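ok trying this again, last paste got cut off
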Amino acid sequence: MTKIKHLLLVSLLVISGCSKKDIVVPDPIPVAEEPKIDSQSLRTNDPSIEFVTVDPRLKSNGKGVITIPVVIINYLPQTPDGIYMDPYRTLTPNVPWDVAHKYTIDRAKEKILKDKIIEKNAIEEGSRYHDYATNTVRPYVNIEVVAYINVKSVNLVKVGTKVTDTTSPDGRIINPITINWYNVDFNELLTRIKLQNYVEGLGVKEVWFTSWPRDNGANGYNVAESNMSPGTISDNTNGYDNTIATDISNGGGGTNDLPRYRNTYVVYGCNGSRGADTDLHNRGHQLEAQLTKVDVGGLLWTWGFTPRDSAGGVVKRPRMGNCHYVPNATVAYDYGQTNTVKSDIMTWKPSGGTYVDINVNTWLSKKYTFENSISMVTPSTFATGTVDYSKDAQSKWFMFWWQSIPGYGNNVTDTLNGKKITFNNWWDIFYNWDDNMKKGTKIYK
């Protein structure tokens, strides 16, 4: 209430017979924040789509610098009684329909939700530059899930054929047959849920899509680990025109396999028959893909932060680590490696930081604050059993690795070709992709 309005109110009350001492002046009305919009406000009438109220644990806690709106979609095909996941759309033919594999819809929903809560917190934690579980550094990212949607059916589009074996339990091809091979028709699905409203109206930048892809069988399909849909805003600033931008992702099928809207967004393929660790892994590859795009002359290779695993078929183990290789790995996916090596990952700069001894305990021993406020235990991929992600080396590696790259507030400087360089915030490049492409932002300035 302005001062003039306040005086006018007092005058009117006095004129009406109230004495000054009888007047109770209300507190100023605070300016209302924009309402938190979720799936309930953008629901459709499609009976195959279930709109679920977003769990508060998937909402932003407001501690980060930027907020990333996310839509979660889960493909849950059901048996006719609605109790179990449909085995003909979730299990390969050589997996028996028995007690160990009869996955209920309720268990699937519980698993997805718990996985996503862990992933949300891990992503936010990973954006704390050099925090390393001290809880003293502000996260750069808030994840804000604005829609949580379950779908019972998806269209599949044939993309080719595949030679496989539906009889071999260990994946070997002993009795080869040729089957049709499909992808999820995301153009149909995302149009059906009206994703354009979320991307263009709410600024959604990511879709987390969970399914149980079949590697074999009549309905065999897979989903890309990450898939970018470039925006269509025409802006040829710095030579970057979104209307002709390329698909920068890990497994994406070009620029036509997803609907294209004004702004860029990424669909992450989350495999329900795996878990939170694999979903974080997929994000690591997307980070590598985007950083490769803004790298200048392949310097990330030279500097020990390699966004790829090998050169000419020769494995290169980076001192900074990457998605497949921790700095002390002997083979890919060796996140639990106990042998000790020297690494400057925690003080990295191109010319070298301070080298210290590291092994799996360096990242696995970290106890992050969020682990005390959520459950780190989720249902396993079988019909019974659980997974404890507080003891998972791969998940802990990704948080540790992400906290080590130049992030918000980093002061990493070095000299390149006799010139001082300062590193940009790589998380800003990653999440504010369109703006940074238009500005021509690179990994350093």
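PB: full thing came through this time. The first strand starts at residue 49 and ends at 52.
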